[in-house]
Specification:
The chain is mainly α and 247 residues long. It has ten helices and two strands; from the N terminus they run E-H-H-H-H-H-E-H-H-H-H-H. The protein folds into two domains: 137 residues, no CATH class; 51 residues. It is 68% helix and 2% strand.
């Protein structure tokens, strides 16, 4: 049966309107001819083997051929919707098999004795439903086609294509994430001289050395954006300097 890529979109009108009309007309002609050829055999099977009244038996070929066409159209619709059509194809094959068996049985019963000519007649009679099946499959293959899909190009690939083509068009780069700058901290002896040059910082450290109420290393560090350890080292340095001892 017809197999198409599951992810590809399917177009019923991809073959063109004129081709569609011609194909559908040809399928209708094949269906009518198949019905005319299969009609006597199916009616005979209905009357002689199924014991149906003649008025009911004449409906048997109509039901089988109409069921075959319905299954074929339903399969086309489901495939156009990118859905599986296993049940519809199974129905189509089953009805074709019933029609083939009925035609062969009718020929054998009419001949009454096996002969090569009887085999040829059975094959010819059975060719009608098989031809309808192949014609239906041909229509599905002609009107159901995969439409071309657009490929998504990644940003880096797009930039590479622009560079390779020599285009001067700038490719916008993603915005850089803002970087939070940490509070400036002055460290080690060279930085200590810079800190001690700040009169307010030196006054705050002296208050810490003198044990002024409400003063702590954490508060001084938070005020001047230095660590608690740095404030402690600067306080020790000033304490030694005031005592006349060089560090």
């Amino acid at each position: 049966m017809t197999t198409l890529t599951p992810d590809a979109p399917i177009h019923l009108n991809a073959a063109g309107r004129r081709v569609q009309i011609a194909t559908l007309i040809a399928l209708a002609v094949v269906a009518l001819c198949s019905f005319a050829v299969a009609y006597p055999g199916l009616v005979w099977v209905g009357v002689e083997l199924a014991s149906l009244p003649l008025a009911v038996a004449v409906l048997l070929p109509i039901a089988i051929d109409a069921g075959m066409l319905t299954a074929g159209l339903a399969a086309a619709v489901r495939r156009s919707q990118r859905r599986t059509a296993r049940l519809e194809f199974a129905q189509l094959l089953g009805l074709v098999a019933v029609s083939v068996v009925a035609q062969i049985t009718h020929v054998i019963a009419a001949q009454g004795q096996w002969s090569p000519l009887m085999a040829v007649g059975a094959l010819v009679a059975a060719a009608a439903p098989v031809t309808l099946l192949l014609a239906t499959e041909a229509v599905l293959r002609s009107v159901l086609t995969e439409a071309p899909t657009r490929r998504r190009v990644a940003p880096r690939a797009a930039a590479a294509q622009v560079s390779a083509s020599g285009s001067t068009k700038e490719v916008p780069s993603p915005p850089a994430k803002p970087v939070r700058s940490a509070a400036p901290q002055l460290r080690s002896p060279a930085d200590r001289d810079a800190r001690l040059a700040d009169e307010n910082y030196v006054a705050a450290v002296r208050e810490l050395i003198e044990g002024a109420p409400g003063t702590s290393q954490n508060k001084v560090g938070a005020r001047f954006h230095v660590s608690k350890t740095t404030v402690g080292k600067d306080a020790e340095y000033l304490r030694l300097s005031l005592a006349g001892v060089s560090s």
